[in-house]
Amino acid sequence: NAGVMQNPRHLVRRRGQEARLRCSPMKGHSHVYWYRQLPEEGLKFMVYLQKENIIDESGMPKERFSAEFPKEGPSILRIQQVVRGDSAAYFCASSQQRDLGNYGYTFGSGTRLTVV
Amino acid sequence: GNSVTQMEGPVTLSEEAFLTINCTYTATGYPSLFWYVQYPGEGLQLLLKATKADDKGSNKGFEATYRKETTSFHLEKGSVQVSDSAVYFCALSDSGNQFYFGTGTSLTVIP
User: Fold this and answer.
1) pLDDT at A100
2) A19, A89, B24, B76: most buried by Cβ count inside 10 Å?
3) Which residues of A85-99 are buried (b: 16+ CB within 10 A; e: fewer)?
């Protein structure tokens, strides 16, 4: 049973380009969460999605960032017109149950975005 | 609001030494508490958890007790190994839509 799969593992983009990060949740998991880890910081929540729905995007920057989780296929985190400050590790997590307090997450290995 | 404060790192210990990583939290209500471990180049893995006061979570020789009176969830291990070298994150969930993570504590164990 494969875990949470993220790709690519490493992504280099020039300033102004678009970055697309993909996340396939564990089999049977319908809840997907995106977190960002800036250098020397902990993980910060960005967005929570279920299939075809954004449930909570309170942690997403208001501009340039968007996320989706279509009926078919992986969840996508999209960053338009990247800037150097977007350089970070982006982690996806999935859960089977809505009750995170009891079940927690399973994390992917992350995508490390470098903006040059 | 919710927040987690961890002791600053990095921490360097000799093999077989005793480990304590302090974690305190601020939360409304009764959160669940977690420790996650991140090995180099990898994602976070759940190490242990506790869902109510006085619960003790344990796994792979690591332990942490949920202390409501001191709002703490300190991670301990009696005898660390080189393979325990990693970054350790304390986190809480208030059963909302997200976890709140500490900034992480880097541990290096030397032979």
Assistant:
1) 65
2) A19
3) ebbbbbbbbbbeeee
Chain-centre distance for alpha carbon A34:
3
Q: Give the C-alpha distances (Å, rounded to integers) separating B35 from A24, A56, A84, B93.
A: 24, 24, 31, 11
What 3-state class would DSSP assign to B37?
strand
Can you tell me the distance from the alpha carbon of B100 to that of A108, in angstroms, rounded to the nearest whole number? 18
Give the minimum alpha-carbon distance from A31 to chain B in angstroms, rounded to a whole number: 10
Q: Are A26 and A3 in contact (CB under 8 A)?
A: yes
pLDDT in tens, A75-101: 999 999 999 999 999 999 998 876 666
Put simply, the answer to whether A43 touches B93 (Cβ < 8 Å) is no
Range A35-63 average pLDDT:
91
